[in-house]
Fold Biopolymer transport protein ExbB.
Amino acid sequence: MTFELLAAAGEAAPQNSFGFMEAMEQGGIIAWSILAVLVIMSVGSFYILFTKLLEQRKVMSQYKAVRTNFWKANSLRDGATKLDKNSAWRQLVDDAILAEDQHAKMTDKLEAHDWMHGSLARSEDTINSKLAGGLPFLATVGATAPFVGLLGTVIGIYRALINIGIAGSASIDKVAGPVGEALIMTAIGLLVAVPAVFAYNWLQGRNKRIAEMLGAFTTDLLAYINSNGTVKPAAMTATSTQQAAKAARTAPAGATTTTTTTVKK
């Protein structure tokens, strides 16, 4: 008899179901709209992260070809053919060649140097701006996503309090469930914002390293052009010196003696 009464009481008691879908259904179109905005933010953040990461890796890998092949060419035009046509480094070289051609038409040497320097700086800024594209979106998502989620939480709590007031009961079981559901939107906002902030800082740091490489390459181009090809990067000079020293160490003793005697004569 006792078990039958307990079973009947359990069936008669209202079953309260709480969860994400229940919260969204109670929130209505406003909750679904806020969730859609957060999903768009999250998808856009990961899309920018992966596309920019691939773009940065491409630029960095192409820099190895610049260091190994470009500076071994006899001229800038020959070196440009060894670079990818759509690469940032090819753009700098092409702009340097164009600036050099325009430089020869100027009569004022100081003005011509400023023109060449400004042309390469403008080209470098264009590349940096392209690499930085999309990062403001990540910064915006990192700054606003928690507040978008908080807006959903505020609306959810408001609806929960209205329903509690209509029911006329403020017991803990009536308050904890609806308020807990409303906090789900804040959690989603944080889950969207945190990866965006990490992605922004990481990509920004990599862009700074690329900007340093572009700046060094631009300086080397200017030195090469202004010296008519006699001044090359310090790394290339050091490599040539090391190769010459290694060749001298590995050469036979007789060959070294013969070379020294010839110089003395």
